[in-house]
Design brief:
Helix content is 43%, strand content 14%. It has 14 helices and 13 strands. The protein is globular.
Length: 373
């Protein structure tokens, strides 16, 4: 069977997060066993960080959207025939519409339908048009949360029986680090002792304007806010808001954080805030919990599902409620201790081995149905 890994970037930028990280982690956890043999399809210049599976490299560069889409829709059907693939996993919303091979499609969220204004027009139109067609044609759809499953059923009109919830996993490196190592990291990065962390792409969907306004209401000169993440799109408002609120001195923007450094940022933070307008899952919440960092997140979309009983939930659009939540989290030592323990217990349920096992089981079921028909 084939896995389309053209989005598995090894570049040190925001493009290696999100879907790219999902693909890389899944590839590393999959195993060729029980009659399943994988071929991983990658671009000419892509680097899925040494995935332990055979690679099939395209002859054209597919690092930018238009060549990748053209390859996926026009060249991929011929590639699948050439390598004699029985099944294709398309891990990023869309598979080739001209191929008659069975397909599994992963849907990470439907924010481009719920919040179209947060997307560039071309991206929005492509995803709205192609995702629905691809999912309705697919043998199965993987949704990364129960919330996303219901979105796929309700918005894309895919039968419930063909949509399967399979959660992301958390890598073992996300864990509490020794106090001395964390103190050394803070000193190296020039970080204060007390700071609230956000980690993710700087983009409108992450609701960073509300976080900034809530943070400004705390009026605590010893407390800082770190917005760690690469610039995605439509991010100028974030910088304008920092200046307008007069909080330049206490807001830090370190840029994209490489994956092997993220655990130290979580460990160094007093609390983690993740208040997106819309999330299909919310893996950073669980990564922070695995590191023992108390979490403030929203009570909407998939955020409560990711957080479990191990985070403080607030209405993410309400500046006053977010400010009150931040205040509670930084002032209430007992609450932070409770959330640390609950968070680690909750995060332990999510592993990439479990994700891979459930995904492999789905592959086998589809292939068995195909052979029996």
């Amino acid at each position: 069977m084939a896995i389309n890994a053209h989005l598995a970037s090894g570049a040190s930028s925001y493009r290696s997060a999100g879907i790219s990280a999902y693909i890389r982690n899944l590839l590393h956890a999959l195993k060729a066993e029980d009659g399943l043999y994988f071929k991983v399809l990658v671009g000419r210049d892509s680097n899925p960080e040494g995935a332990p599976l055979p690679l099939v490299r395209s002859t054209i560069p597919t690092a930018t959207p238009l060549p990748r889409i053209l390859w996926e829709q026009l060249a991929l059907p011929a590639v699948l025939r050439r390598i004699n693939a029985d099944l294709l996993h398309a891990p990023a919303f869309v598979g080739p519409l001209l191929s008659h091979k069975p397909q599994v499609i992963t849907v990470h969220d439907l924010s481009f339908m719920r919040y179209p204004a947060f997307f560039r027009r071309g991206n929005r139109l492509y995803l709205r048009t192609m995702t629905g067609i691809a999912c309705r044609r697919a043998s199965a759809v993987i949704a990364v949360s129960d919330f996303t499953k219901q979105e796929v059923v309700n918005l894309l009109k895919v039968p419930d029986s063909r949509v399967h919830t399979i959660y992301h996993g958390v890598q073992p490196r996300f864990c509490p680090r020794p106090r001395e190592e964390v103190a050394r990291f803070r000193a190296q990065q020039g970080l204060p002792e007390r700071f609230i962390l956000y980690m993710g792409t700087l983009e409108p969907r992450k609701n960073l304007l509300t976080l900034l306004r809530a943070f400004a209401r705390l009026h605590d000169p010893t407390l800082h806010l770190v917005l760690a993440g690469g610039k995605g799109w439509l991010y100028d408002e974030i910088f304008d808001e920092i200046a307008a609120l007069g909080i330049n001195e206490v807001v830090h923007l370190p840029g994209y954080v490489p994956s092997d450094m993220q655990a130290l940022w979580y460990n160094a933070a007093m609390a983690f805030a993740y208040l997106s307008h819309y999330e299909g899952f919310g893996l950073p919440i669980i990564e922070a919990q695995a590191c023992g960092t108390p979490v403030l997140t929203g009570n909407t979309t998939a955020l409560p599902e990711a957080a479990g009983d191990a985070a403080l939930l607030v209405p993410p659009e309400n500046v006053e409620a977010v400010a009150e939540g931040l205040h509670r989290l930084i002032r209430d030592t007992a609450l932070r201790d409770t959330l640390r323990q609950r968070g680690r217990n909750h995060a332990a349920q999510f592993t990439w081995e479990k994700t891979a096992a459930q995904t492999t089981r789905l592959y086998r079921n589809i292939l068995m149905e195909k052979r029996g028909s």
